[in-house]
Structure formats: structure tokens, C-alpha cells
Automatic annotation (TrEMBL):
Pfam families membership: Bac_DNA_binding
InterPro entries, sorted: Hist_DNA-bd, IHF-like_DNA-bd_dom_sf
Domain of life: Bacteria
Protein name per Swiss-Prot or TrEMBL: DNA-binding protein HU-beta
SUPFAM superfamilies: IHF-like DNA-binding proteins
UniProt xrefs under CDD domains: HU
Provenance organism: Solimonas aquatica
Lineage: Bacteria, Pseudomonadati, Pseudomonadota, Gammaproteobacteria, Nevskiales
GO biological process, one term: chromosome condensation
Isomerase listed as a keyword: no
Coiled-coil regions listed in the entry: none
Length: 93
């Protein structure tokens, strides 16, 4: 089973690791995530070395099946964010 590691845990770890107050760590985490989101939206791709690359993936519209009723449905085109870990991150696992 995968361990749950959320925003709160990240803030707690930064508080200890960098000797920050919880408020400072929370602002830092928020700023990092907001900046990443803005840059991904603007550029479509953000590389954070030596961690990995975030990029926008486009999915075309397609046909699907409603699992409850078995009827055909149309699924709209969509965008999502994908993450590709760097070689150094993969090698460290």
C-alpha cells in the first residue's frame, strides 16, 4: 500500500529541515505549487532538475462506454499534467 504524503506532511518536513515556522513553510509550498502551475500553463512544459519534467498531455475526444448501462458515450477532449522523473530520480529508487 502506498504511503499518503500530502501538503501538510511536506510543510511539516520543511519546517524541521529548514528551521522555518509553519507559516513560512506553508507560504513556500504554496508559492512553489502556484509557480509550477502558472509555468506549466504558460509553457506547456517545466523541467525541475534534478527531479523531473512536468508537461501538458492532450487527449483527443473519443468514444466510450457507460459501465452502468453499457450505452455508448462521447468523451470530450481534455488536457492533463504528466510527470516524467529524471534519470537521477529513477536511479535513486
Amino acid at each position: 500500500m502506498a504511503a499518503s504524503y500530502g501538503r501538510k506532511h511536506l510543510i511539516d518536513d520543511l519546517t524541521k529541515e529548514l528551521d522555518l515556522s509553519k507559516a513560512q513553510a506553508a507560504r513556500t509550498v504554496s508559492a512553489v505549487f502556484e509557480t509550477l502551475a502558472k509555468k506549466i500553463k504558460k509553457h506547456g512544459k517545466v523541467q525541475v532538475l534534478p527531479f523531473g519534467t512536468f508537461n501538458v498531455a492532450k487527449r483527443a475526444a473519443r468514444k466510450g462506454v457507460n459501465p452502468k448501462t453499457g450505452t455508448a458515450i462521447k468523451i470530450k477532449a481534455s488536457k492533463s499534467v504528466r510527470f516524467k522523473p529524471s534519470k537521477s530520480l529513477k536511479d535513486s529508487l
